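Troubleshooting log. The previous structure file for this entry was overwritten by mistake, so regenerating from the original sequence record. Sequence copied from the archived sheet and checked twice against the printout by T.R.
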Amino acid sequence: MFLAVLSSRIAASLVSSINEMQKPRRAAALENCRKWNQIKEGQTMHSPPDIFAPHFTDDPYRHFDVLREEFPVSYSEQAGGYFISRHSDVRQVLHDKTFTARPLQSRVELVTQGPVLAQIEGREHSAKRKIVVRSFTEPSLSRYHVGVIERNIEGLLGPLLKQESIDVVRDFGRKLSIYVMLDILGLPRSDFKQINEWCAGISKYSFSLDSSLETRAKAISCGRALNNYLTPVVQKRQNHPEGDLISDWCASEAGDKRMATDAIRVLCVNALVAAVEPTDKTLGLLMRHLIENPEQQDAVRSDRRLLAAAVAETLRCTPPVQIIPRQSERDTTFGTGHFVPAGSTIYCLLAAANRDPRVFTHPERFDIFRSDLGKDRSFAGAAEHFAFGSGRHFCAGAAFARAEIEMAANSLFDATINWRYAQGFRYGEDGIYTRGPKSLLLAFDRV
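Regenerated output below.
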């Protein structure tokens, strides 16, 4: 107990010292921001939308035009960094190697007790990324994973179709994505509830702007529990391999040597947390758009080849991951003339960039027929939208996510018609860093 209190006091002292050291930089950044916020000579200076305010979090999309046009680079003292919202600036940050994933270290690595793929750079990143990409793309996708996805869809959807409505997010999408990842990794389905809770606790702090001590402590506790759970599993597979992905990673070489136990454990945490967050949100968002655009729903139902375009447009219009943080390793001046000093944290507003009218025509509209998106490249590094990131840290599981979402949606199309919100259900979204519906009650008729 004494050591814990002493450690806490030392940590608090260090944080206080760091904050004192950063005060001059913050003051300079705020002064720069005040100067930048004066749009044109003669106009009254005003402030950018407060990303942490309730009116922003309730509906961030209605504020993106103001951010892009009037405050394309804006400093937030609460976030301790700069928010960028134009497509060209976001692309620059995600592709330029002088912008690193260093901000993830303070949050993610603290919880995972090791660097995740999204924060690693250089040769280590290339070697480990190659292993993960190989695991979740062809031919592995068709050979090993499609059957697992099919079996889980069938097992989950069968009982749900006996009900008057389905919660597409909670009862279908979330369970599907986690069940599939458990099966692929070779972890018991009976541990679903506990792993789901651990991953949710990790995500709430690691991939958010929530800096509360309570959320941080919860994330560290969940991370420690998940790490303690996974370490003996990885060690067992290293000595006695089975036909699962963990065993495959244990036998894989990153560079010229096999990965250590901790490196494999962190990849497992990475895969599980990724399964918890975006897939269920994307499926819910897709259903929302198709329910609210019945003509496009009918078009997809008549020609399933349009489903890929519907998923791609969902990812552009309402990406489940809305922010990616980076750190500038050198002084940078963006195309708008805004200066950001070296060492600054930069938050890429993916959802705002995805609705930039300089790139997309009528960007606020959900349109599966738009010609400026390109569905064939929307799930690859050449994608115009940023839902999967871009550049060297483009999501390694994009092809897998596409397959899972399209197979789930196709199964709903096969079994049901006349999609609508269940009586009394009111659609809503929440989140700043990641965003989507917590629930979507789908009413339907059986085919």
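The chain has one domain: 37-446. Archived copy saved in two places this time.
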